Amino acid sequence: MDEHINYIHDYCLANGLTLAVAESVTAGYLQYMFSKANGAALFFQGGITAYNTGHKVKHLQVEPIHALDCNAVSQQVAIQMAQGVCPLFNCNVGVAITGYATPFPEIGIYDLYAYYAITCKGLIAAAGKLVPAAKEPEAVIEEYAGKIVEACCRYFKGQQKAQAVG
User: Fold this and answer.
1) What are the phi and psi torsion angles at 51 (to 5°)?
2) 96-117: b or e for each residue (b if 16 or more CB lie within 10 Å)?
3) Would you list the DSSP string of 116-157?
4) Under the phi-then-psi rule, with left for phi > 0, alpha for psi from -120 to 50, and beta for the rest, what region is 98?
């Protein structure tokens, strides 16, 4: 995973990009992963862990009616979190995730899943749903974070290829 983080670091530096994270289900683990890069402060601006709906609405400008309707776990919420973290940290790449690392039977959640989004300069670069193979919460969190780092890396590699062709 370190090679992916280092690639993201190098791509961001070469292209004048800075990155911030908005996360809930990964509880700071994505921020930790990005902070491990050598010279992380040159591209990683920081992040916010917004666990409840109120903080996602207040700090990340997530639309409240939709967020309340889905317990702030949807593709729309992940996109809004990724877009909302950018002005908060004065950056141009936002990475976000929201979902479940444990079942939540009180609201009918028995299967684990999460939604993620990556935005770049205000545009949706990547987004999707993750369903973990792991079952233990810590392993689920690590799996989610790893898949998002891989998705970020894939997006930047695609951009690099497009720049080389263009």
Assistant:
1) -80, -35
2) bbbbbbeeeeeeeeeebbbbbb
3) EEEEETTEEEEEEEE--S--SHHHHHHHHHHHHHHHHHHHHH
4) beta
**What is the pTM (predicted TM-score) of this model?**
0.95
Dmax of the chain from CA atoms? Answer: 52
Per DSSP bridges, beta strands 44-49 and 19-23 are parallel
pLDDT at 56 over 90: yes
Q: Cα–Cα distance between 115 and 125 in angstroms, integer?
A: 14
- CA dist 79 and 83 (Å) reads 6
Going from the C-alpha of 71 to that of each of 2, 52, 62, 65, the distances in angstroms are 33, 8, 12, 10
**Per-residue pLDDT tens over the stretch 59-87:** 999 999 999 999 999 999 999 999 999 99
pLDDT, position 77? 98
Residues 6+ apart with CB under 8 A from 105: none
